[in-house]
C-alpha cells in the first residue's frame, strides 16, 4: 500500500517525476498513475483505494483528462485530496475553491503541501481543504452598516434642528413641532433598524 497516489496526466510524466521523487525522499511511499498503457485498471483502483492521500498535479493537460477529474472528485469525496498546480490557469469547479500548492510563475509552495501531507498521512488529522485566503479576499465590507446608521442619524439631526429653528422663529406651531419631532423619531428608528439588519446579514455572510 502506498502512502500517496499521484493523479496526473500521462503527458506530464517528465514534469511529475521530480515531484514523486521529492515525496519519496521525505519518506512517503508513492504510486503515481499508470506505469504504462498495459497497467491494469484493477491495479490502479487498488492503489487509489489503499492510498492515504491523493495528490492531484494540475496542469493544462490534466484539466482535460477525464481520469484526473474523476480521481480528484473521488479523493475529495473521501477527504484525502491534496492539490498542486504546475501551470497558471483556473482550476475546474469545485477544485478552484480548495487549497492548492502553486508550482509555477516562480512560486514554490512546497511547505503547504508537505504540512498537509504530514498531517493527513502521519498524524491522521482531517483535512481542511478550503482555501481561506480566497475566502478572506471575498469577505464583505463591514463598514457599510455603520455608514448607513451614521447617515440616518445625520438626517434625523438635521430635521430636528430645522424643526426647532422654525418653531423658535414662529414659523411652526407647537402641535406642528410635535408632529415634526414624531417624524424625526420615526426616521431615526427606521434607519437604525435597517442598519442593524444590514449589519446582521453581513456578519452572517462573513461567517
TrEMBL record:
SUPFAM superfamilies this protein is in?
Toll/Interleukin receptor TIR domain
Top-level division of the source organism's lineage: Bacteria
Pfam families given in the database record: TIR_2
Please cite one Gene Ontology biological process associated with this protein: signal transduction
Any idea which UniProt keywords this protein has?
Answer: Membrane, Transmembrane, Transmembrane helix
* InterPro entries hit by this protein: TIR_dom (IPR000157), Toll_tir_struct_dom_sf (IPR035897)
Q: Which residues cross the membrane?
A: 148-171, 177-196
Which residues does the UniProt record annotate as the domain TIR? 4-106
Name this polypeptide is given: TIR domain-containing protein
Amino acid at each position: 500500500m502506498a502512502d500517496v497516489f499521484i493523479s496526473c496526466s500521462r503527458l506530464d510524466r517528465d514534469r511529475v517525476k521530480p515531484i514523486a521523487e521529492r515525496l519519496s525522499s521525505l519518506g512517503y511511499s508513492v504510486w503515481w498513475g499508470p506505469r504504462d498503457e498495459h497497467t491494469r485498471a484493477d491495479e490502479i483502483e487498488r492503489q487509489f483505494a489503499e492510498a492515504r492521500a491523493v495528490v492531484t498535479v494540475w496542469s493544462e493537460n490534466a484539466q482535460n483528462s477525464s481520469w484526473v477529474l474523476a480521481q480528484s472528485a473521488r479523493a475529495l469525496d473521501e477527504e484525502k485530496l491534496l492539490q498542486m498546480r504546475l501551470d497558471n490557469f483556473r482550476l475546474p469547479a469545485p477544485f478552484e475553491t480548495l487549497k492548492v500548492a502553486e508550482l509555477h510563475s516562480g512560486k514554490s509552495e512546497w511547505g503547504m503541501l508537505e504540512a498537509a501531507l504530514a498531517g493527513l498521512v502521519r498524524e491522521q488529522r482531517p483535512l481542511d481543504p478550503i482555501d481561506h485566503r480566497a475566502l478572506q479576499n471575498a469577505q464583505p465590507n463591514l463598514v457599510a452598516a455603520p455608514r448607513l446608521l451614521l447617515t440616518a442619524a445625520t438626517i434625523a439631526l438635521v430635521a430636528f434642528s430645522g424643526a426647532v429653528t422654525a418653531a423658535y422663529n414662529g414659523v411652526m406651531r407647537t402641535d406642528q413641532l410635535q408632529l415634526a419631532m414624531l417624524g424625526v423619531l420615526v426616521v431615526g428608528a427606521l434607519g437604525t433598524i435597517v442598519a442593524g439588519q444590514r449589519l446582521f446579514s453581513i456578519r452572517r455572510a462573513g461567517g
